[in-house]
Structure formats: C-alpha cells, structure tokens
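Why does this matter for the project? Reviewers at the last site visit asked to see concrete outputs rather than summary tables. In response, this paragraph embeds two records directly. Each consists of the residue sequence and, immediately after it, the corresponding structure tokens. Nothing has been edited or filtered.
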Amino acid sequence: MASMKSAIYAIAAATSVVSCGMSTAFAGGEVNVYSYRQPELIQPLLDAFTKETGIETNVLFLDKGLVERIQAEGVNSPADILLTVDIARLVEAKEGKVTQPVLNDPVIEKDIPANLRDPEGEWFGLTTRGRVVYASKDRVSQKDITYEELADPKWKGKICIRDGQHSYNIALFASMIAHHGLDYTRTWLTSLKNNLARKPDGTDRTQAKSIYSGECDIALGNTYYVGLMLTNEQEPEEKVWGNAVRVIFPNAQDRGTHVNISGVAMTKYAPNKENALKLMEFLASGEAQEFYASQVYEYPVLPGAQPSDVIKNFGPIKPDSLSLTDIAAHRKEASELVDEVGFNDGPSN
C-alpha cells in the first residue's frame, strides 16, 4: 500500500464522473456503498481502492433515510457498506439493527483509536470535525474560550447558532451532559439561549454570514464549513464570510474540543462481506484517511496523519477524549432539554 497516496491523488485529478446508481449484480468483484456523504467527495478514494484491488464500487447516495431503506430491503439489501457524516447516524444504524460487528481486525484496530469506534465493532470513525466557535476577526479579540463560557452574560445578544435539534448541536449538548450532568446542562443551555442574538436558524455557513453582517459576534459551527467557504470558487461571497471569522477551539486548555465523526459500518446482510471488509481496511489506512480528510476539510483519526493546509491554518486541535459512545448515550436527554428550555424560540429577555 506504499504507493496508495500517489495513486489516490492521481485518480482524484482525473475523476469527474460519479456513480449514482446501484448495480443489480452482487457477485464477487464489487462492493456496494450506501452513502450519506456526497459521491463527488468519496469517488476519487473509491476509484483508488478499485485500482489497487480490482474490486468495483457502486454508490447510492441519499441525504436521509438510508437506514430505513436498508430495513425495508431486509435480507435482499444490496448494501455492503454504510458511510455516514455523524455519530448520530452511526448510532441510528446500530440501533436500527442494520449493521453487523467487525471484530478483532488488526488493520482497523491499529488505525482507528478506541474512543472513535464502537466497542462492539458495529461502526468506526474515519475523520473528525471540531464543533468550534466562529469569532469575528473585527470585534472579538480573545483567543481562548470554553463551551461553559458561552453561558456568560457578557455574550448576551452576541451568539448565533443553527437549530438546537440539529444532530451537530445535539451531539455537543449530549457531551455537556456527559461531562457535567443533566441539571448543569439545563442551566447552561437556558443561559446560552438567552445569550443568542436571534432564534436558531440556518446552517453553519449562515452563522458565519451573520458574523460578517454584524448580527452576532460569535457562533457555533463545524471546522470543515470554514474550509469549504474559504475554498468556494463557485460562490465567492462565501469566501468573504469565511474570511470574516477566526476559529477558536473551545476548552483547548482543559478537556479538549468536542469532535464528531464521519464513519463507516458493514451492513447486516452484506452480500459482498469479504470485499466490504477490504474496503473498510482501505478507508482506515493513514493514507486514505489523509486524502479523505483533505477532500472534506476534516481531520484524520489516525494520530500523526495530517489534515489539509487550510485546516492546519486554524491551529492545532486537542480533541475531547470522551468516548463518542458515551456522548451518544445522552442524545435523547439532550434533545428533550432543547424542547424543555424552548431553545429554538430564541432569547426570552
């Protein structure tokens, strides 16, 4: 696999067509991927896998409903691999009983840290992204912050955020419960709500736009959105938004920044199980992680593997070492808290 990185980048340069259908033949020599991630972001990597192994890949992309689709297909499902963009969907797949364990695989266990894989082998992380603070370069001078500080009244009327029930925010709120307990998080979330500049709305990119326009001074967002904005040649206004914000990694001086993952799981009835395992091992490798992370402006999970130069410019990230399994266990409580405090109603005073 020594030449894999050069092969990946050579194929990426030549790739312009992605597979959006699903082959109906399930003989040896192929692997079928159900993906929540856009095909154009993963196709160069899959093409490199095919070049190295001779195994063809077929991709079906949907932005929602893949677990329900696999459940409906049952034992006749053609899916071998499920690629997801966050821990919530990985847990959803496991709880929906559409995955199977991959245990004691030496490649995966070597390249994927234990806190970023399911202890029962049902899913594995491939890249991470930090849930960070976007801060106005013009109006915010401080360089360090904690999630806890977002409840400080000094930020009253100065914070923007997307829907509190979005999976990215639910994961962060669940991590606060895991660290501090339910009562603390209820008080913290209420104070955060009252510090908002407006009702939660939009996407993470919207929050950067709101900082640029002066609507708020700081916001919560994922690291990779800043990378996507800064490199968006098709919509140059997004470059302006991205350049208006500075990334601050919360809790860098103590427990570390909350991270979420993109990940992979083998489906329960994978018809090409051997090929699926080969693809999982390929995706877990350091070279593949680095390329995948560079495509989506995220961080490889393998210690020592490097992100893209754009992401490096944000500075070093110290990830929270709390197990994502522990965080996921509090998702339901976090969602209930969002409703309980009326978070999506915006500030009450």
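We now turn to the second protein, recorded in exactly the same manner.
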Amino acid sequence: MDRRPGLSARLRLTLSYAGFLAVAGALLLAVVWGFLLRYVPDNQQGLLGISPNRYLLVHTFAPAAAVAMAFLLVFGLVGGWILAGRMLAPLTRITAAARTAGKGSLSHRIRMTGRRDEFRELSDAFDSMLEELESHVAEQRRFAANASHELRTPLAVSRTLLDVARKDPTRDPGELVERLYAVNTRAIDLTEALLVLSRSDRAHLHRETVDLSLTAEEAAETLLPLAEQRGITLDVTGGEARTSGSAELLLRMVTNLVQNALVHNLPAGGTVTVHTGTEGDTSVLRVENTGRPLPPELVPTLTEPFRRATERVRTEEHAGVGLGLAIVHSVVRAHDGTLDLAPRPGGGLLVTVRLPGIR
C-alpha cells in the first residue's frame, strides 16, 4: 500500500528528545531568572552599593541564557539522533528479517539477545512465526509432491494395462475391466480423501452441536460388515460427549479411526473398542484396537500424509491411500482439539481425541 512520504520514526524521536530537552531547559532558566530578578533591587547602586542592579543583570544573563539554550537544542538533536538510533536498532533487524522472509527465505531467524523487553518479545514472536511458516510450507510442499506421485500411480497403471490390452487383442477383457475398475476405485478414493483433507484444513466451518457417542454408533454400524468379515469384535461404549463442529467432518474422523483400527488389527479374533465420554469441559473419544506391537518411534509419524506403517497388519483389499490418520489429525486441529496416539503394551494402538465440550 503506497503512503505519502513523511518523517521517519528516528527523526520524530530525535525531534521529540530535542524538544523536550529545550522545553525543560527553558523552564529551568525561567525559574532561575525569576528568582534572581526578584531579589535584585532596581536602582542605580544595586544591593548595598556593590551588587549589580537589575538592569545590568538582565543584560549580562540574557546572552548567557541564549547560548545555553542553543547548546541544549544542538545537544538534544545530536544526542536524540544517537539515542533514537540505538533504541530502534532492534526494530531495524526485525524489518530486515521481514523483508528477507517476504522474498521467500523462511529459514532466517533474528535470534535477538539481551534483556527481555518489548523488542525482544517481538523478535521472539517473529521467529516463532517464521518457524511455523517454514514448517507449514515444507509440509505443504511435501504433501503436494506425495499427492502428485500418488495420483500419477493409478494413471500410469491404467495406461500400462491399456497398452498391454492393445498389443494383445486376445487377452481376456473381463480381467482387464476388473483391474481397471480396481485402479479407478483407488484413484477415486484418493481424490475424495484429498478433498476432505483440504476442506478440513479450512479455518471456517459450519458448526453445530454433535454428540460423539451417536457419531461413533453410526460409524460402527457402517463398518460392522468389515468387522464381521475379518472376525473382529467391534464394541461402542461410554456416554454422551457433545461438541461443536461439522457433523460431516466429525463423522469422517470417527469412521477413519474405526476403519483404521479394523484394518490394522490381528488377522482374526481381534477387538476394537470405541469409548466416548467427558472429562471436565472436554469431550473425549477413544478408539483402541488389538494388533501387533508398534515401535514407539513409528507412532508419531502415523498422522503424516501418505505415511503407511508397513509393520502394521492389514489386508491388501483395504491397503488405503495413507491419508486416514492425516485426515483425522486435520479434522481434530480444525475443531481446536488434540489427538494422542499411544502404542498398547500388548500390541495395537490407542487413539484419544479431545475436543471442546458443550454442556
């Protein structure tokens, strides 16, 4: 935004310092002058015939006062310019860092030292903002690269299948259609997951009152055939847990958690428990499943987009696209909640979602 040119902050501070010093000096001289003239007689001989009279004192003191005022003004301007420069030096560093960041370099940090004053707090806040921006941009770039790769894979597979079918007309068309259908279904699932992930990252959501217990029952009912197919016991326990948010996104969150718990489970005889409740002013959803033991260093990476935990047991028909827990994390973050993942001692995973509750 273009603005009209004006005085710099340093020059304004300098003029303020000099003006304040000049006014203080003038007041001091006025007080001294007033008290001196008050006790000096206004006659030809002066006090006791040896002190100067008021006329001589005025003509003697006035030039000296004028010189003192000029000195104070010059001293105020020079000293004020130096002091203003020292005071605004941290702001100059912050401005330079902001310009560097504006050119795309987010790795630069101010790292201001010294006592913790207003400029130091501003510098630390700016460094924190740059760190968050750098992390977010890096995550977005990594996500875009992974998404491009994931979307290109089914297209490349489809092209290969069509090339093979074109070169071999005698090939069974039914097998080709089935394989193309599976590849196309995977591409559609990936695209829908990307759309949900993008929508859940938005700050503004249509909010309404949602009971997580009812959402958990709906998700469990939808995924019950998958649980029966894999021989897994699916239980929903707990009580009412109301929160404010998007009913569609919260249902997708719970569905992803339950489906993830079913897919990454024991080959048979496993269990999945979904529990809802409240803890103070917080609504809590817990999804716990059996499975093989998970390395502790693997758990924090499960919410990264396209991150597949290869050590976890899953069936190939439900291999997924690597966005299940990433979508959950994004939905929880959009609803001002927290997501905790912890490996169970006996194997499997315990996922805890905490969202702001509603009385």
